[in-house]
Amino acid sequence: MSLKRVPSWAPSEKERDERIRHAARLIGLSVRGVRYYDLDYEAMRSGIDTTGPRVVADSKEWASPSWRFEHCHSLDHGLEIETTSGRVFSITWDPPGPMEGVGLREEPLVGPAILPDAAIAVWDVSDRSEWQHYVGGVVSGLTMHYRPWGDPEAWWCPRISITIDGASIEILLAECRADPTGIAPSADNIVVLFGPTKLPVWT
S-S: 192 plus which of 7, 21, 44, 73, CB 3.0-4.6 Å? Predict the structure, then answer.
């Protein structure tokens, strides 16, 4: 990941509050579409030589998306939310370092967070996933769930809550698993949960 992106973790309350204010720009805007960014597993399996993001269009791939699990969506890189005004907001994990977190910035993923030549599969989930119930809705609330990180002056964000027309979406720094544990913490993966749901106890 590129170091250009401002990380979600913050070394002070002042910088934590900047991250919160920045994310709040999404409040009051209407959602036009949502895109998932995942590793290009199909290219890896088939030996296709790909450079840069590849938009997934094949119905066979859509029959079994790499990110879809029974109880959640699990993303290697993150997601973008595009508004009806054309503004783009992205959610992803912080680059490896002394602290972890998941952040939301008004910028695309490719460039600030993902190298332009990375082998990435881009899935437009606007009308082919649970997101279809939220597209067209207005973001009425957003919470960055910051916690102290060891040093009381430092802060990290393991979870973001987004409310669209009164319905909630939870985004966690975690990964889905196809086993009884369901969801597990992760430093480099994003989980999306929809509607009323029981969050993992560690959140």
Answer: 73
